[in-house]
Structures are given as C-alpha cells and as structure tokens.
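Researcher: Sequence recovery benchmark, item below. Answer with residues only.
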C-alpha cells in the first residue's frame, strides 16, 4: 500500500515535471515574481492575474530547472487557482512545512483536498538538498503576492 502510494506520487512528479501545467507567459497580469535556487540552478518567473474580488484568477510560470522544481510549480499553479490571496499564503506555509517534515500539517478542512494533492511532493523531506527545489515555486508566489505595485507589463 505504502509502495503503491509512493509510486503514485512519483508518477505525479514525473508527469508534472515533463508536462508542466500553466507553463506559459501571461500577457496581462497583476502580480509578478521571480524565483532563483542557485543550489540547483532552478529559476522561474511567475505571473498572477487577480479577479476583481482579489482571488487568484489565473497563474502561469516559465523557467527552467530540475523535475522537482518544475513539477512543484506546475502543481502550485493548479492548486492555488481560484483561491483567495490569504488561502494561497496559508497553503504556501503548509506546503513548506510538508516539504521540510514530510508530514501533512493540519491546514484546516477547507484546504484538505489541496494538501492531499501536494503530498506528492512530501517525499523531498528525505532529501534536504531538494527541499529548496520544491519550495521555490511557493517562495516565488509569496514574492509575487507581496509585489503589490503593478510593474510595467511590457518588459
Ligand atoms: Zn532543483
């Protein structure tokens, strides 16, 4: 059972690493963040479009890096789409705990399903050097959400 679960998780990572979802550039966006993990060479740029009510309406990223970093970014963009900024920050905190400890923190019933999907990456906790690969997308998301000033969309 545990091995089956492990295989499933590996499959999720491989699938998202090979075919990252939302791997594109957003032409119009409200937030932008850049992430860099020099330890592994992972780099990414993230764009977020907000809905009128402040929810994360659309997200897209581009970058290059190892399969873990790309899979994590892919899963992150899928997981936080439609969420409020507060929920996204909360998921980010929970994910960091998951990546560092391997245990799924109690993030509240409202986000249980999301955390379940993210558990595919919990295995990185066994490889401390890869934790930063997995958390890079979430750091980048936090940075983007903190960049309240809209930057010139035409760079
Ligand atoms: Zn990496």
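Model:
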């Amino acid at each position: 059972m545990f091995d089956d679960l492990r295989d499933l998780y590996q499959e999720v990572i491989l699938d998202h690493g090979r075919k990252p979802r939302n791997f594109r550039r957003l032409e119009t966006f409200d937030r932008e963040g850049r992430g860099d993990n020099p330890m592994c060479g992972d780099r990414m740029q993230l764009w977020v479009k907000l809905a009128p009510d402040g929810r994360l309406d659309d997200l897209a990223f581009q970058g290059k890096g190892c399969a873990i970093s790309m899979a994590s970014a892919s899963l992150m963009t899928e997981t936080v789409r439609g969420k409020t900024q507060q929920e996204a920050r909360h998921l980010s905190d929970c994910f960091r705990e998951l990546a560092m400890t391997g245990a799924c923190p109690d993030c509240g019933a409202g986000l249980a399903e999301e955390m379940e999907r993210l558990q595919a990456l919990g295995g990185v906790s066994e490889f401390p050097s890869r934790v930063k690969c997995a958390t890079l997308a979430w750091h980048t998301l936090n940075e983007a959400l903190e960049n309240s000033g809209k930057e010139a969309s035409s760079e």
